[in-house]
Design brief:
This protein has about 350 residues and is an alpha/beta fold. The chain has a single domain (about 50-355), classed as Aldolase class I (TIM Barrel, Alpha-Beta Barrel), CATH 3.20.20.70. It contains 14 helices and ten strands. The strands form three sheets. Strands 8-1-9-10 form a four-stranded mixed beta sheet, covered by helices on one side. Strands 2-3-4 form a three-stranded parallel beta sheet, with helices on one face. Strand 6 (about 240-250), helix 11 and strand 7 (about 285) form a beta-alpha-beta unit. Helix 6 packs across helix 7 (about 155-165) and helix 6 (about 140-150) packs across helix 9 (about 195-205). It binds ligand V47.
C-alpha cells in the first residue's frame, strides 16, 4: 500500500490513529511538516511547558552475565574495570543526591550473578528508610527478568518483593528494539520482548507506573521503530501505566556493535515527532539529552518532545559509550537552557506532578 502524503497529514490533523504502514510513511514526510504536526499535538497538551526533574542516576554494578553488543557499560574485555558498590556506598550517593535537591534516584544495574537478590533489593530498602520522601525508580524489566529467573520467582512474586522493598516506579530500560530478529542480534539472551511487555503489564496492573525506552540508530530499520512504538501503544491501551516514551539515541563508543551508518539529526528529530504522533495514549515524550545531545533535545521541544529528563548528576551506562552525561547538568543551567529556547521550565516529580513552574526570571 502506498500511503499518500496528503491523506496522511489530514489523518494526523484529525487525530486519527495510524498503523504500521502509515507510521513508516510518516518518515517520508519532510521534516518541517512532520515537526509542525507533532508540535501541534504537543502544544495542545502542554503549551510551552517543558518538564524536567531533579534526579540522580545510580548504577551500582557493571558486572553482567549478559553480553549486549551495544553496551559499553558492562565489564568486558573492552572495559576490564569491574565494580560493585556496597550498600553503604549506594546510600552515601543517595544522601548526597538528597542534599543537592534530588527528588528521585534512578537506579539501574547490570545483571550481576555474583551478588544475591538481597543486594539489589536491600539497597532500595535502605534508601527508603533513610529518605522516605525520595522516589526510587529502579529495576528495568531486564533486571526484573534476571532476578526472577535466577531466584526461581514468578514475575508476580518478584513484583511483590519490589513493592515491599520500596521501589516506587520502574524505568523504561531494557526495551531496546522489540523486533525479535534485531533483538536476537544485538542482545541475545536478554529478556524477550514479550516478557519485557509482560513485566510492565503486571507492574501496571498493581496500579504502578513506568516508562518505556527504544534504543535506535544502530542496525534497526525504520519499520522496526514503528513496530516497537505500536507494541507499546497496544499495551498502553490495556493498562494506561506508561508515563513517558524515551527514544534513546545509540552511542557508538567502546562496544561490540558494528554500525555502518548513524542517524542524522533530521532522522532523530523525525523519530521524536513520529513517536508523538503515533503514541497518542502515552502522555510524555522524553528527549533524553544524555543521548540526543543537549542541543538536539532543546530542538526536539519543537518536534513533539515535552520532557528533557533531568539533572542526572552522574550516569555511567550511556556515558561509557560516549554520551555527555557522566556529570549531569546543574539545575540553574537546565532551567536557563529551557527558558532560553523559548519554553517554560517545569520541575516535576517522577509521576509528572508539577512542583515548580519557572515562569519568571
Ligand atoms: O536499557 C545501553 C541503554 C538503557 C547504550 O525510564 C544505551 O526515565 C545508547 O533506560 N547507547 C538504560 N543507549 C537507560 C534507560 C533510561 C535512561 C533515561 C531515562 C529512563 C527513564 C531510562 O541505556 C538501556 C539501554 O537501552 N543503552 N547502551 C548505548 N551504547
Amino acid at each position: 500500500m502506498v500511503v499518500a502524503a496528503k491523506e496522511l497529514i489530514e489523518k494526523v490533523k484529525a487525530g486519527e490513529r495510524l498503523g504500521q504502514e502509515e507510521g513508516e510513511a510518516l518518515y517520508d514526510l519532510d521534516l518541517m511538516t512532520l515537526g509542525e504536526l507533532a508540535d501541534g499535538i504537543r502544544k495542545a497538551r502542554y503549551g510551552r511547558k517543558s518538564f524536567f526533574n531533579v534526579n540522580r542516576h545510580i548504577n551500582p554494578t557493571n558486572v553482567c552475565k549478559d553480553i549486549c553488543k551495544f553496551c559499553a557499560y558492562s565489564a568486558s574485555r573492552k572495559n576490564p574495570n569491574q565494580y560493585t558498590l556496597t550498600h553503604d556506598e549506594i546510600l552515601a550517593i543517595a544522601d548526597e543526591a538528597v542534599e543537592r535537591g534530588a527528588k528521585e534516584v534512578h537506579i539501574v544495574s547490570a545483571h550481576n550473578p555474583e551478588v544475591g537478590i538481597d543486594w539489589y533489593l536491600g539497597a532500595f530498602r535502605k534508601i527508603k528508610e533513610a529518605h522516605p520522601e525520595l522516589h526510587v525508580k529502579a529495576l528495568t524489566a531486564a533486571e526484573v527478568n534476571f532476578l526472577a529467573e535466577s531466584n526461581g520467582l514468578s514475575y508476580d512474586e518478584m513484583i511483590d518483593r519490589m513493592v515491599e522493598s520500596g521501589v516506587d516506579s520502574m524505568p523504561g530500560g531494557g526495551a531496546e528494539i522489540f523486533d525479535e530478529e534485531v533483538r536476537d542480534y544485538i542482545c541475545k539472551g536478554k529478556v524477550s520482548s514479550e516478557n519485557w511487555l509482560e513485566i510492565h503489564r503486571k507492574w501496571h496492573q498493581r496500579g504502578r507506573e513506568s516508562n518505556a525506552t527504544m534504543l535506535f540508530g544502530h542496525v534497526e530499520k525504520r519499520a522496526h521503530r514503528i513496530d516497537h512504538m505500536l507494541r507499546l501503544r497496544n499495551l498502553q491501551d490495556e493498562t494506561g501505566g506508561f508515563n513517558a516514551f524515551i527514544p534513546l539515541v545509540y552511542q557508538r563508543q567502546n562496544n561490540f556493535l558494528k554500525v555502518e551508518e548513524f542517524p542524522t539529526a533530521q532522522e532523530i528529530l523525525k523519530t521524536y515527532a513520529i513517536s508523538r504522533i503515533l503514541l497518542d495514549n502515552i502522555p510524555h515524550i522524553k528527549a533524553y539529552w544524555a543521548t540526543s545531545t543537549v542541543g538536539l533535545a532543546l530542538l526536539a521541544q519543537e518536534f513533539g518532545a515535552d520532557d528533557l529528563d533531568g539533572t542526572i548528576q552522574k550516569e555511567s551506562i550511556q556515558s561509557a559509550a560516549g554520551a555527555a552525561s557522566a556529570h549531569g547538568l546543574p539545575l540553574e543551567e537546565f532551567v536557563a537552557l529551557i527558558r532560553n529556547s523559548g519554553f517554560v521550565p517545569v520541575e516535576r516529580d517522577s509521576l509528572y506532578n508539577e512542583l515548580k513552574v519557572y515562569d519568571e526570571e
